[in-house]
Amino acid sequence: MDALTLLTQRHSSPRLTEPGPDASQLDTILAAAVKAPDHAALTPWQFVIAQGEGLLKLGEIFYRAAQAKGESGEALARARLLPTRAPMVITVIAKVQAHPKVPAIEQHLSAGCAAMAMQMAAQALGLGGIWRTGSYAFDPVVRQALGVEGEDQIVGFLYLGTPLSKAPNKKSPDPADYVCYL
Ligand SMILES: Cc1cc2nc3c(=O)[nH]c(=O)nc-3n(C[C@H](O)[C@H](O)[C@H](O)COP(=O)(O)O)c2cc1C
């Protein structure tokens, strides 16, 4: 797949199954992540990879967060299962450093670019993925469990695996609707 096809045909895959990225594919995905644009070369990111047992550990963290929010019944049980919707979940964290020229927003954006780069790399490798946040990305229990402090931010949970369904036949927005010229 050439670069422009990837950029213009990119899509998410919400329904994923095994196999997830193998070791060599994961290396490629992470190599794409660390090429994200990065003001002052702060490398303001951390990637927490969960697969196998790791998915259950992440589910346990979501479960504790749901408990702390007072969830019960099905909602509580669902929290534990959320990460098992894919063979691999990469939690993308913006690790913000104090810098006179690089505010937190720029470091959050860099981490977001890394998330998209990983999703694109996965798609180029024939895999699929979806970038999710949901309330757990902002949850204090989840933040603490993953060492997310201060202006750090979980920018997303990138679910990766093999798509269960074909690319959706979805109309793209018309770029002209968002463009003006000075
Ligand atoms: C920061 C961010 C957070 C997102 N969080 C969710 C989410 O929690 N759940 C979800 O279904 N989609 C979420 N999305 C949207 C999907 O990743 C995806 O872009 C959307 O389903 C549209 O599909 P497409 O990428 O194929 O156009 C999020 C996207 C971004 C950029």
UniProtKB/TrEMBL annotation:
Binds 1 FMN per subunit. Its EC number is 1.-.-.-. Residues 8-161 form the Nitroreductase domain. Residues 1-15 have a biased composition (Polar residues). FMN binds at R10, H11, S12, H39, W131, R132, T133. It comes from the Bacteria. Pfam families: Nitroreductase. The keyword Endoplasmic reticulum does not apply. Belongs to the nitroreductase family. NCBIfam families: PRK10828.1 (NF008088). This is Putative NAD(P)H nitroreductase. It comes from Ferrimonas sediminicola.
